[in-house]
Amino acid sequence: MGLFNWPGRAGAPALDATRPADAAVRLGTDTIARRVDAGALVPPACVGLVFEQGGHLRRLDAGARIVLRDADTACCFHPGPYQFDVTPYAQAPEIGLRLQAVIDSADPRVMQQRFDLYLMSEAEGQLERAGLQQACEHALQLGLLQGNLALPPCTTEAEWDLFRAGLNRLLYTRFGITLEECLPVDLGESVDYARILSARAAHNAAAPCVSAMPAPPATQGQTSASVPSLVSATTPGLASVPASAPSSASASIPAPASASALAPASGLGQAQAPVSALPCAPAEDAFIKDARALRRLFLELPSVMCCLRLALLPPGPALFKLHRELLQRLDLVSLSVNSMPSLEWATPDQPLGAAEQQRRARDSAQAVGALDEAWALLARLNDAAPAQLDALFDDADRIVANIEQAVGARRLICSAQREPA
User: Fold this and answer.
1) What is the rounded CA–CA span in Å between residue 62 and residue 110?
2) How far apart are CA 125 and CA 410, in angstroms?
3) Residue 103 φ/ψ, nearest 5 degrees
4) CB 303 within 8 A of CB 117
5) Of 309, 290, 301, 367, which Cα lies nearest the Cα of 330?
6) How much is the pTM?
7) Other C-beta atoms lying within 10 Å of the C-beta of residue 211
8) Reduced to 3 states, what is the DSSP secondary structure of residue 108?
9) pLDDT (tens digit, 9 = 90+) per residue, 170-214?
10) Strand order of the sheet with strand 82-86?
11) For residue 129, what are the contacts with CB-CB under 8 A and spacing of at least 6?
12) How many CA atoms, within 13 angstroms, populate the side-chain half-sphere of residue 333?
């Protein structure tokens, strides 16, 4: 299946042993992680990461030499800190949050660090700061949209502390990074809202040709409301921070975000790239999308099950039964992913048509969307009050059912075999 091979992607080449200074210069500013070749030295103040063929990850200290086996791959990353701006509400791109985050050091209590898994599973060994900014922005917008995070109008100090703690748990569980600072920032002078609306109109006009992510489902009872203000005039410590850097504000969560990189923390002020609609994706891209989605499911589902199994829950037979059933269902889904049929073949002697290949790629992408929701749920589970557990397990049942449905649909030969919902 090629799950342990990184699909080809355009970008900077891997660092090698003949250019040790190149890694030290590029890592820690706009580049967070970069692949390295065998024999390279881990740059100073950086961490080496070796991804073994069996799925195990191990870290190397600065100055160590990268030693790889035949099928092993490696990368180096700088722990930061990194500063970037995110937009909580896509409908109000002039309102932003300035985040400063660091990559956590190795936790001896766990065998697999969360950032290592994110770097190898989603980033494929290469991570730019702009990519992490867009991922954090999407996770924040999705959490606010689904009601998992609360940022009410005229935020009080207590409400702000609660929101900041929830965002820190989300980023730690989802990406393995710790939030050091979170401040409101006015992006009105750096955001061209007219250009964003023009890009949104162009995106909607080319909707049949644009590869867009499906919109997340709205929670039950959720109503539309005006965009809240992040800063209260009477709240101490929440004064507006003047913006000195542009923010890549997307038109909406399903729409593609701007790919512009933010300036480093030591010197903010780079110009923002123009927002443009994505071109039509060729049919052969379905193979790359499907391979990346199945690779994520293969690598991350065991970690999701492990975190769910170690969740601290109050004793009781009813809760224990729900907990056990969720783990059993996830175990069966993981087994289904491990034995997933190839994208190109309906049977061993019959190739699958291009339309059905696209459909299979969409099903695997839907499973990955539900997987992201599972990580967000785990961020709220450990700190949940006993009165909140019923709602959380109902949400967990919905998420697991979505993963089951998407993975089951990915195995089908044609869409006509799909059972009605």
Assistant:
1) 21
2) 26
3) -90, 130
4) yes
5) 301
6) 0.71
7) 15
8) coil
9) 999 999 899 988 888 888 777 777 787 888 888 888 765 444 444
10) 82-86, 95-103, 177-186, 241-242
11) 29, 30, 31, 32, 82, 84, 261, 262, 264
12) 32
DSSP states of 364-402 as a string?
HHHHHHHHHHHHHHHHHHTT--GGGHHHHHHHHHHHHHH
The mean-pLDDT minimum among 4-18, 64-78, 390-404, 407-421 falls in: 4-18
Residue 135's pLDDT is what? 92
| Tokens representing residue 362 in the block | 């969409």
Tokens representing 125 are 């060994």
What gap in Å lies between CA 219 and CA 176, rounded to an integer? Answer: 26
Q: At 375, give phi and psi (nearest 5°).
A: -65, -40
Q: What is the pLDDT of residue 48?
A: 87
The phi, psi pair for 275, rounded to 5°, reads -85, 135
DSSP-based three-state secondary structure for 131:
helix
Locate 217 and state its tokens: 């489902």
Positive or negative, the CA dihedral 128, 134, 137, 138 is negative
